[in-house]
Design brief:
The structure is a single chain. By secondary structure, the protein is of the alpha+beta class. The protein contains 8 helices and 5 strands. It has helices at about 15-20, 40-50, 50-55, 65-70, 70-80, 85-95, 115, 160-165, and strands at about 25, 30-35, 100, 120-125, 130-135. A hairpin with a 3-residue loop joins strand 4 and strand 5. It is elongated and about 80 Å long.
Length: about 170
Amino acid sequence: YGATFASQAGPMGYPRALSAWRKPFATRDGHICVMPYTDKHWNDLLVATGNAALAQDQRFQSIAARSEHTSFVYETLCKILAEKTNAEWLALFERLQVPAANINAPEDLQHDPHLQEVGFFQHIKDDAMGNLCFPGVPVLFDGKRPPNRIPPRLGQHTEEVLNEIAVEST
């Protein structure tokens, strides 16, 4: 977009991604992310939310039309989603098979069902600091996630390292 082709004139960036309306959507009790990409997603969403007339609106009929009218499309979705709670919307979108997810506040993350199910948070007991909770290591090695561990204390390995390199400690 914009400068992909040397002879192309136009603004930089993908217009759909740059729309001020394309962001997490406010609901009655929080925010959700909704990604109705296909024509079926949009039609089902609009009909199920009582907006069947909009489902027939040319601006919602195809990806090309939705892209051309991005701000209108997402502003409309913003107004629709403000009417119900996250739980109500997520239940509907799951039934419609429209991708959607709750937007968590940081303090809600440790109680998120998916993060709990995948063991995202790891609990460590440290003699000096007590019980700690850390996000798990985000990669797998040989199919396993390495455990989190407490970093060494200041000076904890000094003697060992100095002995390894044959330097006398003072």
